[in-house]
Amino acid sequence: MEKCLFTHARHHLAAASYILDKYEDALKGADKLSEDEMEAKKEELKHRTADVSRCWAKFGIYLLEKSKQEMETDVDQPEKLKVKETTISNTDVRVVTLGVLF
Questions:
Q1: The model's pTM
Q2: What per-residue confidence (pLDDT) applies to 101?
Q3: Which residue has the higher pLDDT, 66 or 81?
Q4: How far apart are CA 70 and CA 101, in angstroms?
Q5: E strand residue ranges, 37-80
Q6: How far apart are CA 97 and CA 91, in angstroms?
Q7: How many CA atoms are closer than 13 Å to the CA of 29, on its beta-carbon side?
Q8: Considering the domain boundaries, does residue 68 fall inside one?
Q9: Would you state the pLDDT for residue 15?
Q10: What domain count does the chain have?
Q11: 81 near 71, Cβ under 8 Å?
C-alpha cells in the first residue's frame, strides 16, 4: 500500500466512525419507531460498529507490519542510516543516536 493510501484509509475509517456516531445519536432521538423496530436498528448498528472497529484493527496491524518492513529494509541498507554522536560535557559518556535518512 502506498504511503498516501494510509492517509486515505484512515480518513475513510474516521468518516465511517463519525457517521455511525451520528446515526446512533439520531436513533436515540427517534420516537416514531416501535420497540421492535428500534431494537432491530440498534442491533444493526452494533454489527456495523463492530465491522468498522474490525477495520480499524486491521488498518493498525497492517500499518505496523508495513512500518516494520520498512525499518528492516532501512537497516539492510546502511547508506541510509545516519549516526549522530554527542559527548556530554565533563564526562566520558558518548550518546549515539541512530536515525534513518528519507
A1: 0.66
A2: 47
A3: 66
A4: 12
A5: none
A6: 18
A7: 5
A8: yes
A9: 96
A10: 1
A11: no
Chain position carrying cell 558518548: 94
Residue 84 burial (CB count, 10 A) = 9
Are 18 and 10 contacting, i.e. CB atoms less than 8 angstroms apart? no
Q: Is residue 49 part of a domain?
A: yes
Across the range 29-38, mean pLDDT stands at: 88
**How far apart are the C-alpha atoms of 62 and 9, rounded to whole Å?**
11
Give dist(CA 17, CA 31) in Å, integer: 24
Grid cell of 77 as nine digits: 541498507
Q: Provide the 3-class DSSP secondary structure of residue 98.
A: strand
Could you tell me if residue 102 is inside a domain?
Answer: no
Can you say whether the dihedral through the CA atoms of 78, 79, 81, 87 is positive or negative?
A: positive
